Amino acid sequence: MNLIKKIRVPNLLILLMLLSMYPYMFQLFFGFPKENIMGIVFFTIIFLYCISIKNRKKGMPNELIIVMALQCFGWFFYLFMFDDTSYFTRLFFIALTFLAISMLLWKDSFYSFLNIYCKFLTFQGILGVIAFVFVFIGIIQPLMSIETRDGFGYINFYGLTCSNEVLGNIMRVGGFFDEPGAFAFWGVFALLFNKLTFNNQKLEIVLVISLFFTFSAAYFVLLPIYFICFYSSKVKTMVLTLLIVIPLLFVITKTLSNNSEFLYLTVERFSGDHIRSKRFDQSDNAEMIFRQAPIFGQGAQRFEGMGGNTITDNPYEILAKDGIVGYVITYIPLLYILIRYWKEKEVKYSSGILFLDYMQRPFHINEMHYFMLYLFCLMVVLKYGKSTSRLKSVSTPMIGVNKKVQIKLSE
Question: How far is the C-alpha of 121 from the C-alpha of 211, rounded, in Å?
Answer without folding.
Answer: 10
